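Appendix B, Record 12. Input sequence as logged:
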Amino acid sequence: MLIDSHVHLNDEQLFTKIETLIEKAEGVGVVAYIVVGYDIESSKLAIELASMYEQVYALIGIHPSEASYIREEDMKWLEKNLKHPKVKGIGEIGLDYHWDKSFMDKQKDLFIKQIQLANQYKMPISIHMRDATDDTYEIIKEYKDKDLQGVMHCYSGSKEYMEKFIDLNMYISIAGPVTFKNANTPKEVAKVVPLDRLLVETDSPYLSPVPYRGKQNQPRNVEFIAKEIAKIKGMSFTEISDITYKNTIDLFDLTELKKEAN
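Logged structural output:
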């Protein structure tokens, strides 16, 4: 069994055909989906989808690209809706310096505020990190409670930094780039990441793995990611599926699936 630990079924490219996507994913053994928000509207839709579908769970949060537009009422809405029974964490949050470095301080402030919310409500966090490894690490190290868990979503950093994030009680989630022919760093990370800290995700509709690279991604493609990791680690697909299934349940406290697994 597989869980897509980070997917945007709340994206306009996917939510209109969600039932078809779920049916295709179930055909390859995907049994649950963590639908992740990136602003208030997408977080609302994540909750709506989680309420409609038993196998869908929601993370709600505000992406760093939205840092210049955040209002006080947005943070109040976020805090209020953390109490929803299908909301399993805060995400995706973090830092992204790739496109625009002009509002780095606002990104850091938003990131810290959401980590503090996670500490208060003891909710795991899903971290977006792009061209901001040092600052991301330092903020997590300084502001996250040591016993609070989280995941480095679609991890693209080095294996050396991977070890440092794991030391901060973070999981490492591997996505489509691990299947790319010349993606040496993701393959190195996949080879050495401890099994008890490994998750898999599609980040659909983005980052389709080989053999669908360049096309719209979908949850069923998590199969190709798990198979590539299994190949790199010299393990079976079933072993990687079972391990990442358990890890995702443990991180996000998916009580219903935990009972089924037992």
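The chain is about 45% helix and 15% strand.
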